[in-house]
Amino acid sequence: MGGQTALNLAVSLADSGALDRLGVRLIGASLPAIRAAEDRQLFKQAMDRIGLKTPPSGIGTTLEECISIAEDIGEFPLIVRPAFTLGGTGGGIAYNRAEFEDICRAGLAASHTQQVLVEKSLLGWKEYELEVMRDMADNVVIICSIENIDPMGVHTGDSITVAPAQTLTDKEYQRLRDYSVAIIREIGVECGGSNVQFAVNPADGEVMVIEMNPRVSRSSALASKATGFPIAKMAAKLSVGYTLDQIPNDITKKTPASFEPSIDYVVTKIPRFAFEKFPGSEPVLTTQMKSVGEAMALGRTFQESFQKAVRSLETGFAGWGCAPIKELDWDWEKLKYSLRVPNPDRIHAIYAAFKKGMRIQDIHEISFIDKWFLTELKELVDVEQFLISRGLDQLSKDDFYQVKRRGFSDTQIAFATSSSETDVRLRRLALEVAPTYKRVDTCAAEFEANTPYMYSSYEYECESVPTNKKKVLILGGGPNRIGQGIEFDYCCCHASFALREAGYETIMMNSNPETVSTDYDTSDRLYFEPLTVEDVTNVIDLERPDGIIVQFGGQTPLKLALPIQQYLEDKKLAGIHSGDSGCSLPTRTVSAKCLDIIRSWTTKLAKRLNVCGLMNCQYAITTSGEVFLLEANPRASRTVPFVSKAIGHPLAKYASLVMSGVTLPELGYTQEVVPKHVSVKEAVLPFEKFQGCDILLGPEMRSTGEVMGIDYEFSGAFAKAQIAAGQKLPLNGTVFLSLNDLTKRHLAEIGRGFRELGFNIIATSGTAKVLQLEGIPVEPVLKIHEGRPNARDMLKNGQIQVMVITSSGDALDSKDGLQLRRLALAYKVPIITTVDGARATIDAIKSLKNKSIETLALQDYFQTTDASQNLQAAQSAS
Hints:
Layout: H1 3-16, H2 18-22, H3 31-38, H4 40-49, E1 57-60, H5 63-73, E2 78-82, E3 92-94, H6 97-110, E4 116-120, E5 126-134, E6 140-148, E7 161-163, H7 170-187, E8 192-200, E9 207-213, H8 218-227, H9 231-239, E10 266-272, E11 293-299, H10 302-312, H11 332-340, H12 346-355, H13 360-367, H14 371-390, H15 397-404, H16 410-416, H17 421-430, E12 436-439, E13 453-457, E14 471-475, H18 486-501, E15 505-510, E16 525-528, H19 533-543, E17 547-549, H20 555-558, H21 562-565, E18 583-585, H22 592-608, E19 616-621, E20 627-633, H23 640-647, H24 651-659, H25 664-667, E21 678-684, E22 705-711, H26 714-724, E23 734-738, H27 747-756, E24 760-763, H28 765-773, E25 779-780, H29 791-796, E26 802-805, H30 811-826, E27 831-832, H31 835-850, H32 868-877
Parallel strand pairs: 13-16, 14-15, 14-17, 15-16, 23-24, 23-26, 24-25, 26-27
Antiparallel strand pairs: 1-4, 2-3, 2-4, 5-6, 5-8, 6-7, 7-10, 8-9, 10-11, 12-13, 18-21, 19-20, 21-22
Helix pairs in contact: 3-4, 11-12, 12-14, 13-14, 16-17, 18-24, 26-31
């Protein structure tokens, strides 16, 4: 269930003997099955045994072996796929010898087993995935087929994908289905879900097996939301002995899980990228995943679901086309390059190419995107031209239906007809054109669905049946992105759970397949829809909720709520974005006087702004103890899940109850909680995916996730957080120090700290002189521009175990410092860029040397109870 991380950990535990020693058994995917699927050599042998083709390839465990394999294959480009890695980490496409060697080095370093697969490129072939499930009685079902619009060469997590597969003939689909069943049996996954990926030659239909994941994957989450079949839930039941025919279908209540899902709609997933956050990194898509989130949409046709998915991304587009995009101003050479080289904006380059008169065949020959998809997209351009020629007043009811069924939003129609979105909406409603809502039922309407999981379409029969109960609409956060992730989904889910307990009917609206809020059983009704004014208004018109909660989904729903929007402020302050910064609770260095000021100001602000629920305030404190308010947001922040787990109280639940009319005294939650233990939150940063980008943090948020460590001492909590974030702290060795002039006053403290831990110190000339004056042993080392051997050489030779570099921000740092920081990242050497970080790291290493890590369940840290139980007890007594 934990993806690649969990599989790698399972293998490590087995290899260390821990599983045998403790009598623990792996269920679902056994150790031999994991090895057979993840070990590139074993997988290739397994495919040979059942007569399935894999691309010409070889397995390398050293750079020399990889080069030999490349020479045997004989031509570039070549694909490098490391074994036991997540999201294609360390892999890539090599177009020449130099690129190949660089990628192989990175792949060998990233692989859990120091093993990479070097294979012949299948660029231009079509890519498909099948989600497969097997039980212990050897029953196998295909949950979903998924087709990548982008051809081979783009990681499936970065590709636009469609379910079910659109361009396979029935014969081809049945062949892939048979192959998938044979593969899961041969690999030996006893029970649970697996993901199988195929490449198909569009010229002759030849099929190659690319890989198989013996676990749930991001495609499993997509398939679950696309079909309504909860793959992870079913896999868990299968792993404890159930068979597919013994598990009822949650949605129909009549069919068993052995009844393969059948869908009468089309699902489109589009990834969201953040290359603008990583300057210096080329926005090119390869076999290494780089997207930070994704949006999904459902429609009765590909065109409808595709348009809805584009506007669900929240990147400034109300759909595909009908917008003044930059690509329209490009010359032919630049446009053709964008069509040829996979990139985040290629889909918009296709629109520009059609607008400039390029033919379907021409675009296909450049991009290798299947002509079926290009034909569907060309028709959307033709509809746009129809709208431009007609004008708003001349559109009939039938015209509106034809346009809306192709996914066009009111905003797009307004652009094409030179009118306003309000005018389009009024005209549409005057003609009685409104969306209907269809149910996701897993069976293409063969049986009645009991679970209200809805999507919109412009048809005549509406399958959503609103009730007259008191109800609340909760707006989710849309696709994950840097700065707005699953922290907000946590809040939305807990709001739904709490309001359901309080007797409200909850209605969830969101477009993110990666979230719990879009599970069909999180709320009473789920609308899987884009979070735009038009789409939200349509749901409001149908449901007529008593209230709408926009406080928990981050910035997305707030932008839809003008009465709240006036209170927001975006300052872009210099410094490190709070989302990228580590933090601790309780505070470690803030004085009691400053804390009293902060408490007083926050209380006054909340009352003056008349906030009901959660409010987030951010403060800055100078070295002299002055307190400054930076910003106040009347909504849940990304720290709510962290704080809730740190203090043992479900804050999102309390906030939703407060918004429903319950008071804090009624909840029994009136005192600030200061726990006896320490909790540390640390950001998880994706720099290894973005080569060429400096790892220094700034006001632009770059983290894609976060982890948390808890201990009774700060040092232990910080150490746990660093390990969880993938930062392996060494207990001995050599530390490289290079501090800028502003931070050199802290150098003696940091140097002594590392020396007391037994570390040797090397430093550049200026830093070394300061340490020598303080009597601290140090070995001077050349800067990169001063000659060799230098710090870069020592890094490559494995002579440095920790690096502490505080940036000076000058031209030399942007050259030498950047090289060292990137190299440390590539060689997995912990790198620290702040004085506070160095202090905390010293404390953490000291803690790891002095005692073993203590592992406790989260509940064992607390003696608190859910304060809302006080309300329930009071209500029961009355």
